[in-house]
Amino acid sequence: MASLQPIEPVKLDESDPQLCRILYSDEYKHTIGTVLALLRDKEYSPRALEWTSKAIDLLASHYTLWSYRFDIVCAIDYDLWEELEWCEQIALENEKNYQIWNYRQLIIEKICKKETFDPHHELPILAAMLQEDPKNHHVWSYRKWLVEHFDMHNDVRELDFVDSCLSSDVLNNSAWTHRFFLKFAAGANNMVANSEIEYVCRKIKELPQNPAAWNYLLGIYARVGRDLSDLESFCNQFYPEEELVRSTYAMEVLARIWKVSDPGRSHNMYMRLAETYDPIRANYWRFCAQQ
Fold first, then answer.
1. pLDDT (mean) for 127-156
2. Which residue ranges traverse the bilayer (predicted)?
């Protein structure tokens, strides 16, 4: 094998004039410049892989670095399991990074072309990430991909996990969204719907002023095509007229129900929301009342 040529780093753009010059460190300029030189020369080698590691340590959000690294991994037939382990460490150090999870998908898809991949392998790293930030959008998006790719909608461990998330924080909208995806992505099912309506109603009773749970409940009704009037007695529990209102979301559902059965009462409910119980959205409630 021919010896590799020395690398002359590409100079980063520091030409004048610049509105706001970025003061790169010498380490950054040398590392990124070296990777750009390797990319320019289309070098796919172990040393190029090592340089991408150094560069990603400095700037994990650089999309081109990840794309180049994946091309190198494919070209040199690098150990994909070792690559997953490396990627895991980078993820733990960069909680808010999207590129890491997209890259991880690519590696797993490549593994699947060669051998069987157990999706449960991913659960520990996902649990660790969501323990640090229970609403990390990038991690939940990756989790959704994992469920979809490996058909884990009915996976007991996945259902137990999302249930534990809601037990810890019933306001976690990301967990509610994921639960809805698990239960209803494959289509409407009345048996599942009945069970989930009972589940979410229990959660609403724990915390009546919880928009995530009410959205989940209304989402079920929309998905299976049920009449909202079925919820009138349930909503009345949180809107006793002689007592302090416990849920403005229950008031909104009642107003929607009464649009057909009692328009005048619906109008009055919207105006109570506008003037007393939710004045921040007064314009919206007045618009609803006008309808």
1. 96
2. none
Distance CA 35, CA 54 (A): 9
According to the model, what pLDDT value does residue 205 have?
Answer: 95
User: How long a stretch of residues is the chain?
Assistant: 291
Domain boundary among 117, 145, 160: 117
182, part of any domain: no
How far is the C-alpha of 185 from the C-alpha of 49, rounded, in Å? 39
pLDDT tens across 249-266, in order?
Answer: 999 999 999 999 999 999
User: Mean pLDDT: which of 6-10, 20-24, 268-272 is highest?
Assistant: 268-272
pLDDT in tens, 67-121: 999 999 999 999 999 999 999 999 999 988 999 999 999 999 999 999 999 999 9
Q: Which domain holds residue 265?
A: 231-290
Query: Cβ distance 114 to 123 under 8 Å?
Result: no
CATH of the domain at 43: 1.25.40.10
Distances (CA, A) of 115 to 109, 110, 112, 291: 10, 9, 5, 58
How many separate domains does the chain show?
A: 2
Burial of 19-42, coded b for 16+ CB within 10 Å and e otherwise, reads: eeeeeeeeeeeebbbbbbbbbeee
Residue 167 lies in a domain: no
